[in-house]
Structures are given as C-alpha cells and as structure tokens.
Design goal:
Keywords: Cytoplasm, Phosphoprotein. The chain is mostly helical. Helix content is about 80%, strand content about 0%. It has 2 domains: about 160 residues, Arfaptin homology (AH) domain/BAR domain (Substrate Binding Domain Of Dnak, Chain:A, Domain 2); about 90 residues, no CATH class.
Length: about 325
C-alpha cells in the first residue's frame, strides 16, 4: 500500500540484511573505510576492557587465596563454621580464577582473532581498491594519450587538405573518400587499417589517378608541376591515413577503458560485498562475545551464591 510503513523484519532476522554496501556505497570507498576503522576502534576498546576485567579477576583471586589459610581456634563448637568460612574464601578465589580463565579463552581470544581478521581484511581490501584505481588511471591515461595523438593527426591532415584544396578543389573533395575506399578494400582482404601505410597510400593514389613521377635528378633539382602535385597529394594522403590510424587507436583505447570500467565496477562490488560480510560478522560475533561474558559471569555468581548458602547453613547449625 502506497505510503504505508515497511513491514517489520521477521523475528531473529538481522536488521543489517536490509542494508547493501554494493547498492548504497558504490563509489564511496572512504565511507566503507570509515566503517572498517570504526569496527577496529570498537574491537580495540572491547579488548582493552576485557583484558582489564581479566586482570582484576586474577588479582582478586590471588588476594583471596592468600586470605584462605586455615584459621586456628580452640572452640570446638565453632570449628566447622570457621573452617567453612576459610573454605568459602578459597572457593571464591577458585571461582574468580576460573572466571578469568574462561573470559580469556571464550571472550578475549575470540575478540583478538576477530580483530586480526578485520585488520587483515581491511588491508587486503584497501590494496585491491588501490590496484583498481591504478588500472582505471592507466586506462584513462592511455585513452587521453591516444586522443591527443588523434587530435594532432586530425589537425595535420586538415591542414594538408586545405592546402591541396587551394590548388585543386575537385581533387581535395574526393581525397577523403578515396582514402576510406583504400582502407575498406584492405579490410575486405583482412588487413584494414593495420595494412602497411605504404600499401594504403599507393592504393589511394592509384584510385585518384595520380601516377608517381620519374625519379631523376632533373625532377629532384627542378620539380615539375606534376611532381609538386604528386608530392602534395601524397603528403595529404599520408596524413589522412595517419589520422585514420590515430582514430582507430583512439577508439580501441576507448573500448579498452570502458571494459576496464566495467570489470573494475564488478570487482569493486565484490569487495563491497566482502566488506559488508565482514561488518556483519563483527556485529554478530561481538553480540556472541557479550552473551558469553554474561553467561560466564552468571555461572560464577551462581556458584558463589551456592557456596554462601552452604556456609550459612553450617554457621546456623
């Protein structure tokens, strides 16, 4: 129903299951890092407190043990009560020692293992994100380089075409088409733009009906009009081929960059999913450690209460 409140989660279902790092934190790695840092801080504080609690229990246990030496008395009627009082102190010492040991084994060690996993996973994820950023940067650098080369080749080719147009407008108009026809023919034979520049240039010149002049000393020293025209057209054709080659390289770099973007996005989402799993594990395991702490402490108090009741019975008998 529109405008209604969302249904509550079923009993026992964790609230974090409705939260998705991959959907809500895409492109926000700093936020994910901040969450990981917060988990580290919480674990460090919990470990500090539990360590302190264990130290207090151990100190208390040792202090009680020193006080539990048998008390000598000459009152036969009080012997059992006095012995029971001394034994109760010793039992308290034992109970608090066991509590300290259980806290060490079942709570502190587990928290330390969890913290180590959080630190390792955080470092690994950060390394992977850095690698992804480097791949993206390299792809962008390669594309910009290819685009600059294409831009330069395009302007050079335009300049030669403009120069040719001033002397032979009709030839200049058909020049670009003849170059593309030469490339298309090469593609049909499986070569395309990868065909040698010399072969493409000859093919384009041939389609333009321009023959190579004789290469003799006279033409070299005193070039004829046809020789000059051939040189001008040949230069324009070559620069058009260079521009087409640069354009192909630029498109290839663009396709590569897009592929890198897609792959990095997939890998980034996988990292986010791993980090979400880690954060959920931190929540669940901290809850479990706190429950264990309560159970161990309750057990210790229950045993102490039983010992006190037994002592009370002895004292009143």
């Amino acid at each position: 129903m529109e405008g209604s409140l969302p249904e509550p989660a079923p009993a026992g279902e964790a609230a974090v299951s409705r939260y998705s790092f991959a959907q809500m934190l895409t492109g926000q790695w700093q936020t994910v890092k901040a969450k990981n840092l917060l988990s580290k801080t919480i674990l460090d504080e919990l470990i500090r407190v539990v360590k302190g609690r264990i130290a207090v229990e151990e100190t208390y246990s040792k202090g009680l043990a020193k006080l539990s030496t048998p008390i000598s008395n000459s009152y036969a009627t009080l012997t059992e009560a006095v012995v029971g009082f001394s034994s109760d102190i010793l039992n308290k010492s034992v109970q608090h020692k066991e509590l300290a040991e259980n806290l060490q084994t079942d709570v502190l060690n587990e928290l330390q293992n969890l913290r180590e996993d959080v630190y390792k996973s955080g470092r690994s994820a950060n390394t992977n994100i850095t690698a992804l950023s480097t791949r993206l940067k390299n792809g962008e650098v390669a594309y910009r380089k290819a685009h600059r080369a294409y831009d330069r080749a395009y302007h050079e080719a335009s300049g030669h075409c403009i120069s040719l147009k001033s002397t032979d407008p009709e030839l200049a108009e058909s020049l670009n088409d003849r170059v593309h026809e030469a490339i298309q023919k090469a593609e049909e034979t499986g070569g395309g733009i990868a065909t040698s520049a010399s072969s493409l240039r000859k093919s384009a010149m041939h389609s333009l009906g321009i023959q190579s002049p004789t290469k003799d000393l006279v033409n070299w020293l005193l070039p004829s009009d046809s020789h000059k025209k051939h040189t001008t057209v040949e230069a324009a054709v070559q620069h058009l081929l260079n521009a087409e080659n640069a354009r192909a390289n630029c498109l290839k770099a663009w396709d590569t960059l897009n592929a890198v973007h897609v792959q990095c996005a997939i890998e980034f989402q996988a990292i986010l999913n791993d980090m979400q799993g880690l954060e959920e594990r931190v929540i669940f395991e901290i809850q479990d450690m706190l429950r264990k702490h309560i159970v161990l402490e309750s057990s210790c108090f229950a045993n102490l209460q039983y010992d006190i009741q037994m002592l009370f019975g002895v004292m009143e008998s």
